[in-house]
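Hello support,

Our group uses your service weekly, and this is the first time we've seen a run hang past the timeout. The protein is Gfo/Idh/MocA family oxidoreductase. I'm not sure whether the cause is the sequence or the server load. Input pasted verbatim:
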Amino acid sequence: MAALRAGLLGVGAMGRHHARVLREIDGVDLVAIADPGGDRHGVAAPLDVLPDIEALIAAGIDIAVVAVPTAFHEDAALKLADAGVHTLVEKPIAHSIEAGRRMVDAFASRGLVGAVGHVERFNPALQELRSHLEAGDLGEVYQISTRRQSNFPTRIADVGVAKDLASHDIDLTAWVAQSPYASVYAQTAFKSGRSHEDMISVTGRLANGVIVNHIVNWLSPMKERLTVVTGDRGSYVADTSTGDLTFYANGTIPLEWESVSSFRGVSEGDVTRYAFAKREPLRVEHEAFRDAVLGRTSQLVTLEQGQRTLEVVEGALESARTGVPVRF
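Update from on-call engineer: The timeout came from a worker crash unrelated to the input. Re-ran successfully.
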């Protein structure tokens, strides 16, 4: 079978990594790159850098990756859908719920594969975590808490930290728990002189009753990417920066220290750090997209799923503006 002819729109901070991976995976041939801003990272060669989405489509591509600022996702995606091109759009799906719906409808009506780049789902720590939860190793899940903190990325100008970063946590939480959000309540802060928020705190509940909370900001000098799942038998801690997964089991040994044993609740048990294969999440994501286009079983993050994540993010921002919870 001939390789899928791939086109890439955008070779900026994220697009340059897409270019590398598209050249590495089997069954895909990167044949065209377009970026109105040029090739500032020097990754296009030996390909010429085309000026726009129209030129990219004219190159005769089967699949496309859209890695331009969120404000331009809808225009590019709708043109690719009209051209019959299967498309992976970087997260978030779009700048607004209405734009996302138009994208979902465009690809669905044409029978095309549309995907959103929620790459955290393909992180090895979260993949391993979900497999343990599916096996029932934690028992009943009580709470999922995430922390995603770092300094301000100057490359992000068109959205705030909620759409850029919190969208990761909202998507991965619903995916890990295998349940949609039922409600959210949020607070935001604007500390860097921009029109968009640079800090958000979200609390909520999933449809299956699990309590969730997310701490996300661009105001921290250290980088933190943690997901903590607490349940009947202990807690899992997934560090998606390193791909590590650790399990903290509830204790089963009776305590003999009177001043400690008088406290009611769980006690500390064994700590297990799991060893497993750690593949690059972006590569696994691209393989899932390729497999979906080829009609194979795939863990693809669909446009519909990306749209649901955007709706929760927008709900959190609405809650922050109004001061009241938003229910779905």
